[in-house]
Amino acid sequence: HGWSEALAGIKSPHVKYICPHAPVMPVSLNMNMAMPSWFDIIGLSPDSQEDEAGIKQAAENVKALIDQEVKNGIPSNRIILGGFSQGGALSLYTALTTQQKLAGVIALSCWLPLRASFPQGPISGVNKEIAVLQCHGDCDPLVPLMFGSLTVEKLKSMINPANVTFRTYAGMMHSSCIEEMMDVKQFIDKQLPPV
Questions:
Q1: CA torsion through residues 19, 21, 167, 157, sign
Q2: At 5, is the pLDDT very low, low, confident or very high (cuts 50, 70, 90)?
Q3: Tens of pLDDT along 70-81?
Q4: Does 1 participate in catalysis according to the annotation?
Q5: Was domain 52-191 assigned CATH 3.40.50.1820?
Q6: How confident is the model at residue 9 (pLDDT cuts 50, 70, 90)?
Q7: Minimal CA–CA distance to 133: which of 193, 187, 76, 195?
Q8: Is the overall model pTM greater than 0.85, yes or no?
Q9: What is the domain partition of the chain in residue ranges?
Q10: Which residues, including other chains, have CB under 8 Å from residue 67's CB and lie 6 or more apart?
């Protein structure tokens, strides 16, 4: 709900916005207490074990949402995936593993999950030219800016580096800001002009 409110301020009339809720599940990092989560998070360091099965299942769920929109008449190359934190990580992973050609990815305050599972060098597949807007606060205590920086370098080795934009925001923590939302709006309007 929070993101649908944030998007309300930047909506373009010709674009449909869908903000799915993550399912509620026990999260290891949260002492196994249930919370909205796309997949389990075991730790927050770069060498932490990752919930591979959960990440892959969540990506399949996102691909099903894309399929539904395609059935509704929206070509996949007019669809942008986006998310914040875990949702951004899921958006990146899904875009890099799907056979559906997408218009772009908005990855806010996040990282690339299962990064070691990707081959070295450029990916083959329909999204090797995908446009990516990656944004990160330089004071993020939860997902450090270093994770964002490492992710953008990995992305630039996998897809056309000219299509990867990395923006940082001074003083921003694990959150968003007006400047970031304006950058998101500009990206959406550029990737999805009215038809």
A1: negative
A2: confident
A3: 999 999 999 999
A4: no
A5: yes
A6: confident
A7: 187
A8: yes
A9: 52-191
A10: 100
- Annotated catalytic residue: which of 85, 91, 109, 176? 85
Q: Is 191 exposed, middle or buried (0-12, 13-18, 19+ CB in 10 A)?
A: buried
Whether 14 sits among the annotated catalytic residues: the reply is: no
Among candidate residues 28, 117, 174, 175, the one labeled active-site is 174
**CB-based contact 136:169 (threshold 8 Å):** yes
What mean pLDDT do residues 137-156 have?
96
Active-site residue, from 40, 51, 140, 183: 140
Tokens of 140: 């993020």
Summarize pLDDT for 13-44 with one digit per residue, the tens.
999 999 998 999 999 999 999 999 999 999 88
Burial letters 67-102, b for 16+ CB under 10 A, else e: eebeeeeeebbbbbbbbbbbbbbbbbbbbbbbebbb
The confidence band for 150, taking pLDDT boundaries of 50, 70 and 90, is very high
Rounded Cα–Cα distance for residues 157 and 136 (Å): 19
Q: Is 174 a catalytic residue?
A: yes
Residue type, 34: A
